[in-house]
Design goal:
Elements lengths: L8 H33 L1 H10 L1 H27 L6 H25 L1 H8 L6 H13 L1 H16 L4 H24 L4 H29 L11 H33 L3 H38 L5 H25 L1 H6 L8 H14 L3 H16 L3 H26 L1 H25 L8
Helix pairs in contact: 1-2, 1-8, 1-11, 1-12, 2-6, 2-11, 3-7, 3-10, 3-11, 4-6, 4-10, 6-9, 7-9, 8-9, 10-16, 11-12, 11-14, 11-15, 12-15, 14-17, 15-16, 15-17, 16-17
Length: 443
């Protein structure tokens, strides 16, 4: 456990952020390896199959991600205020609700997968492979999203080293599972999903052990758990806005999926690779900014709000330093980076789609990095109206711009719509930060 508001702020941010960034890189690394294996062993159809429902799966996962992000802010404020008594019951009650909700969603999505696939315009030639991946991933979704919940909870307690350690374990297990299930046993896309689920289950066990140890340090080891909706309702003020924000952000991706899939499986495959390339940079700046949300929340709980702007400045500097080297390499060598995902003799147009994004559009992700920092700040100080407004503006602008531009420019229009949304959302968030009242009125 660690109070982020004490000691040298710069040192605290850097030492906290480095393990988080490395964790993000590792998590993205094995997701990337999933895609590489799909492309190299299963071919373009494999890439298209895991990409056809990727935005939909991400949107569903965002319900839990958003909730856990907001919930961790609630826990961080309790931790900053030294109010440990509420923490244990709140954590366990939330996990139980997560499990029940995930089970219901899995049953609904598998039962109505034909409707979902129809809306997403999944190509008939990859229908079976898409369902094999989709069904296994959705069934195991609770175990996967629990990894994110555990990481956010550790961050709320001021810990970043343990998530880094378990991310190494997860990466090793996931890659090993891919090699066994796909390369050795020939299970196809189903094997890719199964490897992810089993690796997530192992990480969940590690988080349970660590959380129990933290409870003992808080003097809560002998406390009996008692489920209570009051703990859920108390955290809803933090969690629901973040859940809504995450859903709005990823819902835009789901809305444009039919547009991309409608351009053919080469477009779907190219977009799938473009997403992995983008996520390489996004994983770095998103994890770098996580400390700001928890730092701001602890500052609010401890009555040290005057220190928050200093934290924003540090987050900006470290974000640029972390992202720039990776981004420069990807932009200079886009052909090499994108070719890693494709088998020899793959359709050139699919590779070209990925290269175009990496060379010409990926550099604009710096706008999204700054926007993500503002989001972390708004989340930490519970400025939910600004967080939601920013995200809705960005999501709406992406859908509108993509719908219009893709009609005339194809995949280039899809990428242009993405960049336009980054710029619009960042400008709005920057204006709120500069001129808006983003601190709670009571403060």
């Amino acid at each position: 456990m660690r109070d982020l508001t004490r000691g040298n702020t710069v040192k605290t941010f850097i030492t906290f952020a480095i393990p988080l960034v490395l964790s993000g890189i590792l998590a993205q690394a094995y997701n990337t390896i999933d895609t590489v294996i799909a492309g190299k062993i299963l071919g373009e159809d494999g890439l298209a199959a895991i990409g056809a429902t990727a935005d939909f799966i991400t949107m569903v996962s965002s319900i839990f991600w958003g909730y856990s992000v907001g919930f961790s802010v609630y826990i961080a404020q309790l931790f900053g205020a030294g109010d440990f008594n509420k923490i244990k019951n709140a954590v366990i009650s939330t996990i139980m609700v997560f499990a029940s909700f995930a089970a219901v969603l899995a049953a609904l999505f598998i039962g109505f997968h034909e409707v979902i696939f129809s809306l997403l315009k999944v190509d008939k030639s990859i229908y079976n492979d898409t369902f094999a991946y989709f069904s296994v991933y959705i069934i195991g979704l609770f175990f996967i999203i629990s990894n994110v919940f555990g990481m956010h909870l550790m961050n709320a307690f001021g810990e970043s080293t343990f998530p880094f350690i378990v991310s190494i374990i997860s990466a090793v297990l996931n890659v090993s599972g891919n090699l066994i299930f796909v390369a050795l046993l020939g299970m196809g896309t189903e094997g890719l999903a199964l490897a992810s689920v089993l690796a997530a289950l192992a990480v969940d066990i590690a988080y349970i052990i660590r959380i129990r140890a933290i409870f003992r340090k808080m003097g809560l080891g002998g406390e009996r758990f008692k489920f209570s909706f009051s703990h859920i309702s108390s955290s809803l003020a933090f969690a629901l806005p973040n859940m809504t924000q995450q859903m709005a952000m990823y819902f835009a991706g789901t809305l444009i999926s039919p547009i991309i899939n409608g351009l053919g499986k080469a477009a779907t495959a190219g977009y799938s690779v473009s997403g992995r390339v983008y996520n390489t940079c996004a994983a770095i700046y998103q994890n770098s900014a996580k400390i700001l949300a928890n730092y701001s929340a602890q500052c609010v709980g401890a009555g040290k709000t005057c220190e928050i702007k200093k934290g924003v400045g540090i987050t900006v500097i470290q974000g640029v330093c972390f992202v720039a080297p990776v981004l420069i390499l990807l932009v200079i060598f886009p052909e090499f980076a994108c070719s890693l995902f494709f088998e020899e003799g793959a359709e050139s147009i699919a590779i070209e789609y990925a290269v175009i994004f990496t060379r010409y559009f990926l550099p604009f992700c710096f706008f999204q990095m700054f926007c993500n920092i503002f989001h972390a700040l708004f989340r930490g100080v519970k400025a939910t109206k600004h967080l939601l407004a920013s995200t809705i503006i960005g999501a709406a602008s992406r859908v509108i711009a993509t719908t219009v531009l893709a009609h005339y420019l194809g995949m280039t229009g899809v990428y242009m719509g993405w960049v336009i949304s980054w710029i619009i959302e960042t400008v709005y968030s920057a204006m709120i930060f500069k001129f808006g009242n983003w601190l709670p009125k009571k403060i």
